[in-house]
UniProtKB/TrEMBL annotation:
<protein>
    <submittedName>
        <fullName>Putative NAD(P)-binding protein</fullName>
    </submittedName>
</protein>
<feature type="domain" description="NAD(P)-binding">
    <location>
        <begin position="11"/>
        <end position="197"/>
    </location>
</feature>
<dbReference type="InterPro" id="IPR016040">
    <property type="entry name" value="NAD(P)-bd_dom"/>
</dbReference>
<dbReference type="InterPro" id="IPR036291">
    <property type="entry name" value="NAD(P)-bd_dom_sf"/>
</dbReference>
<dbReference type="Pfam" id="PF13460">
    <property type="entry name" value="NAD_binding_10"/>
</dbReference>
């Protein structure tokens, strides 16, 4: 695996993206969060990042080519948010992921980590809100696009996300019980899998557990 000196975060101003930033900086990486607004860029620059501006809701592949130029790996952690807006799920969670994948392939960026959600291959419950159906569909289709790409990909599918402090204990695997997991622990797992060859071409559920992250990753990889 090539040296991953410069890592871009699509959704860099989001909760997981912000928590991921210090993990990557501690590893000596240049972090390129993609953010929509200048004030977000200024804030993250003050935290040690090298942000670039991108409005996912209006960007096309050409825009991604510009902001991803020169990076070695990409983390896609963007999301349309819990606002009930169906179109944002399609534009951000699906359209943003597809544009990112296409740009990575064109630029020759191999390493790609996508944050999805647990259980999206299952149909939503009857009567589920339309926005939830759109979200599940967007994640399912974008995950498939990642698997069909020629990138060195990892897909992480967290259970319900908590804002509690990270505990450093998780479980990674397939068809796991959907035990909630902290956003901080998700960020730590992303940082851990980025340069792990054993994590390439793997799709894992990510839930709260009892194993330290290095041990959980080693078990899942084996």
């Amino acid at each position: 695996m090539r040296q991953l000196d410069r890592v871009a975060i699509v959704g860099g101003a989001g909760k997981v993206g912000r928590l991921l930033l210090p993990h990557l900086l501690e590893r000596g990486r240049t972090v390129v969060p993609l953010v929509r607004r200048a004030d977000q860029a200024e804030e993250l620059e003050g935290a040690g990042a090298t942000p670039r501006l991108l409005d996912i809701e209006r960007a096309g592949v050409t825009d991604y080519l510009d902001v991803l130029d020169g990076v070695d790996a990409v983390v896609f952690s963007a999301g349309g948010g819990p606002d009930g807006n169906v179109e944002r799920k399609r534009v951000v969670d699906l359209g943003g992921a597809l544009a990112t994948i296409a740009a990575c392939e064109e630029l020759g960026i191999r390493r790609y980590v996508q944050v999805s959600a647990i259980g999206v291959d299952e149909p939503p419950e009857p009567g589920a809100p339309e926005a939830w159906r759109a979200y599940v569909s967007a994640k399912r289709v974008s995950d498939r696009a990642v698997r069909d790409s020629d990138l060195d990909w990892t897909i992480l599918r967290p259970a319900r996300l908590l804002d509690d402090p990270a505990v450093g204990l998780v479980q990674l695997g397939v068809d796991l019980p959907p035990t909630p997991v902290t956003r901080g622990d998700v960020a730590a797992v992303i940082a851990a899998v980025l340069d792990q060859p054993a994590a390439v071409y793997r799709q894992w559920d990510l839930v709260g557990g009892v194993l330290p992250i290095p041990e959980a990753l080693a078990r899942a990889a084996s």
